[in-house]
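Record copied across here:
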Amino acid sequence: MTMISNSKRPSGFKQLLALSLGGTMLLTSGCGGEMTQPVEETPTQQQQPLAGWVQIWSDEFNGTGVDQSNWSYITNIHVNNEQQQYTTSSQNVSVSNGTLKLTARLQSSNGYPFTSGRLESAGKRQFGHTRIESRIKMPVGPGLWPAFWLLGNDINTVGWPACGELDIMENVGYGDWVSGALHGPGYSGNTPINSRFYPSSSVSNFHVYRTEFSPSDIKWFIDDKLVKTTLKSEVTKYGNWVYDKPFYIILNLAVGGSYPQGVNGASSPYPGVPQSTVDLIRKTPQTMEVDWVRVYQWQ
Protein backbone atom coordinates (compact mmCIF):
# COMPACT_ATOMS: atom_id res chain seq x y z
CA MET A 1 0.00 0.00 0.00
CA THR A 2 1.47 3.33 -1.11
CA MET A 3 1.76 5.97 1.60
CA ILE A 4 2.20 9.74 1.14
CA SER A 5 4.59 11.14 3.71
CA ASN A 6 3.96 14.46 5.43
CA SER A 7 6.78 16.02 3.41
CA LYS A 8 4.97 15.16 0.18
CA ARG A 9 1.46 16.29 0.99
CA PRO A 10 -0.19 17.75 -2.14
CA SER A 11 -0.82 21.48 -2.31
CA GLY A 12 -4.57 20.93 -1.93
CA PHE A 13 -3.91 19.76 1.62
CA LYS A 14 -3.71 23.41 2.68
CA GLN A 15 -7.51 23.85 2.80
CA LEU A 16 -8.67 25.88 5.79
CA LEU A 17 -11.76 25.35 7.91
CA ALA A 18 -15.03 26.25 6.21
CA LEU A 19 -17.64 28.69 7.39
CA SER A 20 -20.81 26.84 6.37
CA LEU A 21 -23.09 25.37 8.98
CA GLY A 22 -23.36 21.65 9.63
CA GLY A 23 -26.17 19.46 10.84
CA THR A 24 -26.72 17.30 13.87
CA MET A 25 -28.26 14.21 12.30
CA LEU A 26 -26.97 10.73 12.54
CA LEU A 27 -24.61 8.21 11.53
CA THR A 28 -23.72 4.65 11.75
CA SER A 29 -20.99 2.69 13.40
CA GLY A 30 -17.75 1.33 12.12
CA CYS A 31 -16.85 -2.31 12.23
CA GLY A 32 -13.81 -4.43 12.96
CA GLY A 33 -11.53 -5.65 10.24
CA GLU A 34 -7.89 -6.26 9.45
CA MET A 35 -5.32 -6.37 12.23
CA THR A 36 -2.32 -4.13 12.76
CA GLN A 37 0.61 -4.31 15.13
CA PRO A 38 0.37 -2.84 18.64
CA VAL A 39 1.55 0.74 18.97
CA GLU A 40 3.20 2.40 21.92
CA GLU A 41 2.30 5.69 23.55
CA THR A 42 5.13 8.24 23.53
CA PRO A 43 4.07 11.09 25.83
CA THR A 44 6.93 13.41 24.90
CA GLN A 45 5.95 13.28 21.23
CA GLN A 46 2.27 13.90 21.90
CA GLN A 47 2.93 17.54 22.77
CA GLN A 48 5.12 18.24 19.71
CA PRO A 49 3.47 18.82 16.31
CA LEU A 50 5.20 17.06 13.42
CA ALA A 51 7.31 19.28 11.18
CA GLY A 52 5.15 21.13 8.68
CA TRP A 53 2.00 21.16 10.81
CA VAL A 54 0.66 24.33 12.43
CA GLN A 55 -2.02 24.16 15.11
CA ILE A 56 -5.12 26.13 14.10
CA TRP A 57 -7.56 25.19 16.87
CA SER A 58 -7.87 23.25 20.11
CA ASP A 59 -10.03 22.68 23.13
CA GLU A 60 -7.88 21.79 26.13
CA PHE A 61 -10.88 21.43 28.49
CA ASN A 62 -9.18 23.56 31.13
CA GLY A 63 -12.32 25.35 32.27
CA THR A 64 -15.20 24.32 34.50
CA GLY A 65 -17.79 23.67 31.80
CA VAL A 66 -18.30 22.88 28.13
CA ASP A 67 -17.14 25.74 25.88
CA GLN A 68 -20.27 26.30 23.84
CA SER A 69 -18.39 28.35 21.25
CA ASN A 70 -16.86 25.00 20.29
CA TRP A 71 -19.53 22.40 21.06
CA SER A 72 -23.27 21.80 21.10
CA TYR A 73 -25.00 19.31 23.37
CA ILE A 74 -26.92 16.75 21.31
CA THR A 75 -29.97 15.12 22.90
CA ASN A 76 -32.25 14.22 19.96
CA ILE A 77 -30.22 11.39 18.38
CA HIS A 78 -31.64 7.86 18.62
CA VAL A 79 -29.99 5.55 16.09
CA ASN A 80 -28.39 2.14 15.62
CA ASN A 81 -30.66 0.59 18.29
CA GLU A 82 -28.54 2.33 20.95
CA GLN A 83 -29.88 2.21 24.48
CA GLN A 84 -29.00 5.64 25.89
CA GLN A 85 -30.71 9.00 26.11
CA TYR A 86 -28.19 11.81 25.68
CA THR A 87 -28.67 14.72 28.10
CA THR A 88 -27.25 18.11 28.99
CA SER A 89 -26.95 17.13 32.65
CA SER A 90 -23.60 17.60 34.39
CA GLN A 91 -24.04 14.01 35.52
CA ASN A 92 -23.49 12.99 31.90
CA VAL A 93 -21.35 15.80 30.46
CA SER A 94 -18.86 17.72 32.58
CA VAL A 95 -15.49 19.45 32.46
CA SER A 96 -13.19 19.35 35.47
CA ASN A 97 -9.52 18.91 36.34
CA GLY A 98 -8.49 19.49 32.74
CA THR A 99 -10.66 16.88 31.02
CA LEU A 100 -14.06 16.47 29.41
CA LYS A 101 -16.02 13.61 30.94
CA LEU A 102 -18.87 11.82 29.15
CA THR A 103 -20.54 9.49 31.64
CA ALA A 104 -23.01 6.65 31.08
CA ARG A 105 -25.43 5.93 33.91
CA LEU A 106 -28.07 3.28 34.52
CA GLN A 107 -30.85 5.84 34.68
CA SER A 108 -34.14 5.54 32.82
CA SER A 109 -34.94 8.52 30.61
CA ASN A 110 -37.33 8.99 27.69
CA GLY A 111 -37.89 5.23 27.49
CA TYR A 112 -34.19 4.38 27.41
CA PRO A 113 -32.46 2.51 30.28
CA PHE A 114 -29.25 4.57 30.22
CA THR A 115 -28.25 8.23 30.04
CA SER A 116 -25.02 9.55 28.58
CA GLY A 117 -23.42 12.48 26.75
CA ARG A 118 -22.69 13.61 23.20
CA LEU A 119 -21.03 16.81 21.90
CA GLU A 120 -20.75 18.01 18.30
CA SER A 121 -18.87 20.94 16.75
CA ALA A 122 -21.28 21.37 13.80
CA GLY A 123 -21.63 25.00 12.72
CA LYS A 124 -18.91 26.04 15.17
CA ARG A 125 -15.66 24.24 14.36
CA GLN A 126 -15.44 22.51 10.97
CA PHE A 127 -12.28 21.53 9.14
CA GLY A 128 -11.20 20.23 5.75
CA HIS A 129 -7.93 18.50 4.83
CA THR A 130 -6.37 18.69 8.26
CA ARG A 131 -4.87 16.67 11.09
CA ILE A 132 -7.37 16.08 13.90
CA GLU A 133 -6.44 14.31 17.13
CA SER A 134 -7.58 13.74 20.69
CA ARG A 135 -6.11 12.22 23.83
CA ILE A 136 -8.73 9.88 25.28
CA LYS A 137 -9.17 7.11 27.82
CA MET A 138 -12.23 4.89 27.86
CA PRO A 139 -14.19 2.53 30.08
CA VAL A 140 -14.00 -1.20 29.44
CA GLY A 141 -17.15 -3.34 29.39
CA PRO A 142 -18.83 -5.09 26.44
CA GLY A 143 -21.49 -2.82 24.97
CA LEU A 144 -19.97 0.50 26.01
CA TRP A 145 -19.46 2.41 22.76
CA PRO A 146 -17.27 5.54 22.99
CA ALA A 147 -16.36 7.25 19.72
CA PHE A 148 -14.36 10.13 18.25
CA TRP A 149 -15.43 10.81 14.67
CA LEU A 150 -16.28 13.25 11.88
CA LEU A 151 -19.28 13.98 9.66
CA GLY A 152 -19.49 16.03 6.47
CA ASN A 153 -20.98 19.45 7.15
CA ASP A 154 -23.47 19.09 4.27
CA ILE A 155 -25.41 16.28 5.98
CA ASN A 156 -28.59 18.38 6.21
CA THR A 157 -28.68 18.87 2.43
CA VAL A 158 -27.35 15.59 1.03
CA GLY A 159 -28.10 13.22 3.93
CA TRP A 160 -26.12 10.30 5.24
CA PRO A 161 -24.03 8.54 3.93
CA ALA A 162 -23.60 10.97 0.99
CA CYS A 163 -22.14 13.53 3.42
CA GLY A 164 -19.34 11.15 4.39
CA GLU A 165 -18.30 9.84 7.80
CA LEU A 166 -14.76 9.34 9.09
CA ASP A 167 -14.54 7.25 12.27
CA ILE A 168 -11.21 8.16 13.84
CA MET A 169 -11.76 5.85 16.81
CA GLU A 170 -14.58 3.64 18.04
CA ASN A 171 -14.54 1.09 20.84
CA VAL A 172 -17.25 -1.38 21.84
CA GLY A 173 -16.04 -2.18 25.32
CA TYR A 174 -12.92 -4.29 24.78
CA GLY A 175 -9.67 -3.16 26.32
CA ASP A 176 -7.25 -4.32 23.64
CA TRP A 177 -8.62 -2.85 20.39
CA VAL A 178 -10.36 0.07 18.73
CA SER A 179 -11.59 0.47 15.16
CA GLY A 180 -11.61 3.06 12.40
CA ALA A 181 -13.73 3.26 9.26
CA LEU A 182 -15.08 5.32 6.38
CA HIS A 183 -18.75 5.54 5.43
CA GLY A 184 -19.91 7.16 2.22
CA PRO A 185 -22.06 6.57 -0.87
CA GLY A 186 -21.61 2.91 -1.78
CA TYR A 187 -19.60 1.97 1.32
CA SER A 188 -21.75 2.55 4.41
CA GLY A 189 -23.06 0.46 7.27
CA ASN A 190 -21.02 -2.74 7.14
CA THR A 191 -18.42 -0.78 5.22
CA PRO A 192 -15.53 -2.58 3.52
CA ILE A 193 -13.22 0.28 4.52
CA ASN A 194 -12.54 -0.53 8.16
CA SER A 195 -9.84 -1.90 10.45
CA ARG A 196 -9.15 -2.87 14.02
CA PHE A 197 -6.16 -1.24 15.69
CA TYR A 198 -4.35 -2.61 18.76
CA PRO A 199 -2.77 -0.10 21.17
CA SER A 200 0.17 -1.25 23.28
CA SER A 201 -1.85 -0.95 26.49
CA SER A 202 -5.49 -0.97 27.52
CA VAL A 203 -7.83 1.67 26.14
CA SER A 204 -8.53 2.46 29.79
CA ASN A 205 -5.19 4.31 29.63
CA PHE A 206 -4.84 7.58 27.75
CA HIS A 207 -3.90 7.26 24.07
CA VAL A 208 -3.78 9.82 21.26
CA TYR A 209 -6.09 8.96 18.34
CA ARG A 210 -5.52 10.89 15.14
CA THR A 211 -6.52 11.18 11.51
CA GLU A 212 -4.98 13.10 8.63
CA PHE A 213 -7.07 13.57 5.51
CA SER A 214 -5.94 15.08 2.23
CA PRO A 215 -7.16 15.15 -1.38
CA SER A 216 -5.44 11.82 -2.00
CA ASP A 217 -5.59 9.72 1.19
CA ILE A 218 -6.77 9.26 4.76
CA LYS A 219 -4.45 8.09 7.53
CA TRP A 220 -5.09 6.78 11.04
CA PHE A 221 -2.57 7.01 13.89
CA ILE A 222 -2.41 5.91 17.52
CA ASP A 223 0.20 7.58 19.73
CA ASP A 224 1.93 9.04 16.66
CA LYS A 225 2.26 5.61 15.04
CA LEU A 226 0.71 5.18 11.60
CA VAL A 227 -1.71 2.23 11.70
CA LYS A 228 -3.57 2.54 8.39
CA THR A 229 -3.57 4.47 5.12
CA THR A 230 -6.51 4.42 2.70
CA LEU A 231 -5.94 5.93 -0.74
CA LYS A 232 -8.61 7.81 -2.68
CA SER A 233 -8.27 5.17 -5.41
CA GLU A 234 -9.25 2.46 -2.89
CA VAL A 235 -12.39 4.36 -1.86
CA THR A 236 -13.56 5.11 -5.39
CA LYS A 237 -13.70 1.38 -6.13
CA TYR A 238 -16.89 1.43 -4.03
CA GLY A 239 -18.33 4.92 -4.48
CA ASN A 240 -17.65 8.64 -4.55
CA TRP A 241 -14.80 10.21 -2.59
CA VAL A 242 -16.50 12.79 -0.34
CA TYR A 243 -13.58 14.00 1.80
CA ASP A 244 -12.74 17.29 0.06
CA LYS A 245 -14.95 19.50 2.24
CA PRO A 246 -15.30 20.56 5.89
CA PHE A 247 -16.16 17.98 8.53
CA TYR A 248 -17.29 18.54 12.10
CA ILE A 249 -16.18 16.66 15.20
CA ILE A 250 -18.27 14.36 17.41
CA LEU A 251 -17.41 12.95 20.83
CA ASN A 252 -19.94 10.58 22.38
CA LEU A 253 -20.39 7.62 24.69
CA ALA A 254 -23.19 5.33 23.49
CA VAL A 255 -24.41 2.19 25.26
CA GLY A 256 -25.45 -0.89 23.29
CA GLY A 257 -26.72 -0.93 19.75
CA SER A 258 -25.99 -2.65 16.47
CA TYR A 259 -22.19 -2.47 16.40
CA PRO A 260 -21.62 -3.74 19.96
CA GLN A 261 -24.28 -6.40 19.48
CA GLY A 262 -22.60 -7.55 16.29
CA VAL A 263 -19.41 -8.13 18.27
CA ASN A 264 -20.64 -9.41 21.66
CA GLY A 265 -23.87 -11.08 20.52
CA ALA A 266 -25.87 -9.87 23.51
CA SER A 267 -29.61 -9.42 23.05
CA SER A 268 -30.59 -9.40 26.72
CA PRO A 269 -31.19 -7.53 28.90
CA TYR A 270 -30.60 -4.92 26.17
CA PRO A 271 -29.33 -5.15 22.58
CA GLY A 272 -25.55 -5.20 22.72
CA VAL A 273 -25.46 -4.87 26.52
CA PRO A 274 -24.86 -8.07 28.51
CA GLN A 275 -25.91 -8.31 32.15
CA SER A 276 -22.29 -7.96 33.28
CA THR A 277 -22.12 -4.47 31.79
CA VAL A 278 -25.48 -3.48 33.26
CA ASP A 279 -24.14 -4.54 36.67
CA LEU A 280 -20.90 -2.63 36.04
CA ILE A 281 -22.71 0.61 35.24
CA ARG A 282 -25.13 0.12 38.13
CA LYS A 283 -22.21 -0.15 40.53
CA THR A 284 -20.10 2.64 38.99
CA PRO A 285 -21.14 4.98 36.18
CA GLN A 286 -18.69 4.58 33.29
CA THR A 287 -16.80 7.54 31.82
CA MET A 288 -15.04 8.41 28.59
CA GLU A 289 -12.43 11.03 29.47
CA VAL A 290 -11.02 13.47 26.91
CA ASP A 291 -7.87 15.41 27.73
CA TRP A 292 -7.90 17.61 24.63
CA VAL A 293 -8.88 17.89 20.96
CA ARG A 294 -6.47 19.60 18.54
CA VAL A 295 -6.48 20.47 14.84
CA TYR A 296 -3.46 21.20 12.67
CA GLN A 297 -3.09 22.50 9.13
CA TRP A 298 -0.28 21.60 6.76
CA GLN A 299 1.91 24.62 5.92
Notes: The chain has one domain: 14-298. Residues 275-283 form the longest helix (9 residues). Confidence is low (pLDDT under 50) at residues 1-46.
